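Thread: quick sanity check before group meeting

JM: Hey all, I'm pulling together slides for Thursday and realized we never actually wrote out the predicted structure for the chain we discussed last week. Dropping the sequence here so it's in one place. If anyone has concerns about the input, flag it before I start.
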Amino acid sequence: MLRSNAAHPGAERDVFPHVKDHSPSVLAYTATAWRKLLKRPSGWDGPVMSAGDCYRFQLSSPHVDLALTGPKNRAELEDNLAAVEKGPLSEDEAKWMRAFGRKVHG
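JM (edit): ok, ran it. Output follows.
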């Protein structure tokens, strides 16, 4: 179980390259970086991520098997599931989310 999100992508560098041959089950949490990824950071004029985007970001990694989600209600759960059904991120989506995550992280 490890933290992995657009604002904290360190697992991609520090963990994933070392476990790929061992195939452990990886559960990712804090997809929204404690909701920080759901708010527009100062100086950002592009789109803001949704919770569903955050889960897609996590699950687009071939190393992540499961993402924890914490919807407040049924509507949020349905939104999250609809987003995940879109499948892995496109290159453009990944580029945008990584840039957004860097801006949120500071």
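AS: nice. The first strand starts at residue 2 and ends at 3. The chain has one domain: 2-105.
JM: adding both to the slides.
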